[in-house]
Amino acid sequence: NNWPFFGLRYLPDGKPLADSGLDISVLNSLSHKFNFTYVVAEPEDGQWGGPQPDGSVTGIIGMVARHEAHLAINEITITASREKVVDFTHPYFLESTILVSRAPAPKNKAFAIFSPFTPLMWSLLAATTALMGPLVWILTTVLRSYTNHEEQHSLMNTPIPPRSSVQDLAFNMYRSM
C-alpha cells in the first residue's frame, strides 16, 4: 500500500483489488469516462523496476515495456533511464522535500587571487621559489668545477655560455610557475 496514492486489498483467492487512494480515484474516473475495465496486476519481483545493464527491464516498468500491462499507476519516480523504455504522463504530484543550508558568506574580492591555495601552500610555493634559484646556482657552480667546461666547448667549436646569476636563476624559477 502506498497511502494516500494507492491502496490495495486482497481477495480470498489472493488477487489484488484496487481499494483506495488518489491514483485509484483517477483510474476509476478514467475508466468511467472512457468505458473500460481494468485488472490490478503486481510485478513478480515486487519492484517498480527499470532498465538493467543486461538490457532487461524489471518490475512494473518492465511489465509496461513488455506490453504485459497497458499502464502502471503508483508513485513511480520519473527517471531518464525509465523514460527510455516507457512513456510517462505529466506528474500531478511533485515531492516537496528539500534541503536547506546557510548561504556561504561573501568573500573579499581584493584577495580573491589567493583563494585557490591555502596559506600553507602559498608559503611552500614562496619558499620553493626563493630556494630553487640559489640551489640551482650552487649545483651549476659545483658541476662546472668538476668538468672541463672550456675544453669541451673548444672541441665542439661552440661559445661558452655565460654564467647565470643567482637572481637570474631565481627569476627563471618564478617565471616557470
Automatic annotation (TrEMBL):
Any one GO MF term held by the record is: ligand-gated monoatomic ion channel activity
Q: Where in the cell is it found?
A: Cell membrane
* Gene3D superfamilies in the record: Periplasmic binding protein-like II
Start and end of every Ionotropic glutamate receptor L-glutamate and glycine-binding domain?
4-66
InterPro entries the record matches: Glu/Gly-bd, Insect_Ionotropic_Sensory_Rcpt
SMART domains named among the record's database cross-references = Lig_chan-Glu_bd
Which is a Pfam family this sequence falls into? Lig_chan-Glu_bd
According to Swiss-Prot or TrEMBL, what is its membrane topology?
A: Multi-pass membrane protein
An annotated GO cellular component of this protein is: plasma membrane
- The entry's keywords: Cell membrane, Glycoprotein, Ion channel, Ion transport, Ligand-gated ion channel, Membrane, Receptor, Transmembrane, Transmembrane helix, Transport
Where are the membrane-spanning stretches? 120-143
State what protein this is by name.
Glutamate receptor ionotropic, delta-1-like 27
| Organism annotation | Homarus americanus
